[in-house]
Amino acid sequence: MEDINSILSKVGLKCTKQRISVMQVLSDADAPLTVENIYDKVDGMSLSTVYRIAEKLCEKGIVSKHTIQDSDKFYYELINGEHRHYAICLGCKEMRYVDICPVHSPHIDNFTVTGHKLEIYGYCDKCQKKLNTKGR
Ligand SMILES: [Zn+2]
Ligand SMILES: [Zn+2]
């Protein structure tokens, strides 16, 4: 991956310390993060500053924002060229990367396909166990 400074300057953003730390947290993460998740990992920034920076990075197209079923939170991730799919737990809302692409892009008449989005919903082991216990 390109270094953070050059990504920021390429889209015309000043490389402030705060933007760099948000980018760093996102690039170290192995799943998309909420503003609260990012906030927990950066120093000396308010939640609203983190939110503003994340939104700015989205606006510039270097971070993408996901919404997931049954959650009012946004999940941010750094776009690094490749597309990704996620398995999302309906219990704890944990998002995991799925390292395969289960989609075969269809041929659509008079339409050029440039990408797709797909989220897989289910329950992680922990939440599945809880469900089983409740059911008994
Ligand atoms: Zn879960
Ligand atoms: Zn795919």
Give a nutshell description of this structure.
With about 140 residues, the chain is α+β, with helices and mostly antiparallel strands.
Can you give a write-up of this model?
- With 136 residues, the protein is of the alpha+beta class.
- It folds into two domains: 1-80, Arc Repressor Mutant, subunit A; 82-136, Ferric-uptake regulator, C-terminal dimerisarion domain (Dna Ligase, domain 1, 2-Layer Sandwich).
- The protein contains five helices and five strands.
- The protein has helices at 4-10, 17-28, 35-41, 47-59, 125-135; strands at residues 63-67, 74-78, 85-89, 95-98, 119-122.
- Strand 3 (85-89) and strand 4 form a beta hairpin.
- The model has no long low-confidence stretch (mean pLDDT 89).
- One zinc ion binds next to loops.
- This is Transcriptional repressor.
- Keywords: DNA-binding, Iron, Metal-binding, Repressor, Transcription, Transcription regulation, Zinc.
